């Protein structure tokens, strides 16, 4: 069995089962530390373990002073923040088929909106502009080198500056992502979504954001996944695979494809 898959399944089961209310699991950054810190720290820890040498190792944030985005690396690489993100997705799994989770779509929108707003605030306080909107037909201006490795070897892929979006084999075409985004924008403009059976659900009310969040993620609560797709989930996979979109070099998944390293 895949080790990461087992850990994820265990934590989700313990989180949601009525039988495990009193079970306290260790924080994920202790179980899978390689996903929360850089390779340099992990290498030093391995060396200390092999030589039985106690030590404390400080994690330096990625980048250099030549990269202005380094000013906010403390935010994107914060262990507590990334731990919160992965546990949030365990509390509200997109694939959930169990008991109805109240306002799941609304909470999806709220959490990601707050996260983006806080990131913009941190950027402004460091003399950086708010984060640019993502356009599928515009290049990603700033690259990223995570300096993080998988437990059994292999570095997380890096993304160069000014990377043009490419279709990702086996995942999605960029033209389809643009179409899905257009359909969601149309639903917002018209004030309703179109369900799989052709009926309409009004979203111009207090519960509309819950319905909209479900189709944007999308979760199993989406009433028309064939039409509105899975904008958020597919975007993560496309962004994570831009270093090797056609699997030419058999690169491992990128940081955007893990809940621990968004």
Automatic annotation (TrEMBL):
Protein name from the UniProt record: Haemocyanin II
Hemocyanin middle domain boundaries: 27-261
Species whose genome carries this gene: Nephrops norvegicus
Gene name linked to the record: Haem2
PANTHER family to which the protein is assigned, alphabetical: FAT-BODY PROTEIN 1-RELATED (PTHR11511:SF5), LARVAL STORAGE PROTEIN/PHENOLOXIDASE (PTHR11511)
Superkingdom classification of source: Eukaryota
One protein family per Pfam: Hemocyanin_M
TM segment ranges: none
């Amino acid at each position: 069995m895949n080790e990461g898959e087992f850990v994820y399944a265990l934590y989700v089961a313990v989180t949601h089962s009525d039988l495990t209310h009193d079970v306290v699991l260790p924080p994920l950054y202790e179980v899978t530390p390689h996903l929360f810190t850089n390779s340099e720290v992990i290498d030093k820890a391995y060396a200390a373990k092999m030589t039985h040498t106690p030590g404390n190792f400080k994690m330096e944030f990625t980048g250099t002073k030549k990269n202005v985005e380094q000013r906010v690396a403390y935010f994107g690489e914060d262990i507590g923040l990334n731990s919160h993100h992965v546990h949030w997705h365990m509390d509200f799994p997109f694939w959930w088929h169990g008991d109805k989770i109240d306002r799941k779509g609304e909470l999806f929108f709220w959490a990601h909106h707050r996260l983006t707003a806080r990131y913009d605030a941190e950027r402004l306080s460091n003399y950086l502009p708010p984060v640019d909107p993502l356009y599928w037909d515009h290049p990603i201006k700033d690259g990223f080198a995570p300096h993080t490795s998988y437990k059994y070897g292999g570095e997380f892929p890096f993304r160069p500056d000014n990377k043009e979006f490419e279709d990702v084999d086996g995942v999605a075409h960029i033209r389809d992502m643009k179409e899905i985004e257009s359909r969601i924008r149309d639903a917002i403009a018209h004030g309703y979504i179109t369900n799989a059976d052709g009926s309409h659900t009004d979203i111009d009310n207090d519960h509309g954001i819950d319905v909209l969040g479900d189709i944007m993620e999308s979760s199993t609560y989406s009433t028309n996944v064939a039409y509105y797709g899975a904008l958020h989930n597919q975007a993560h996979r496309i962004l994570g695979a831009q270093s090797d979109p056609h699997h030419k070099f058999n690169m491992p998944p990128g940081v955007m494809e893990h809940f621990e390293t968004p």
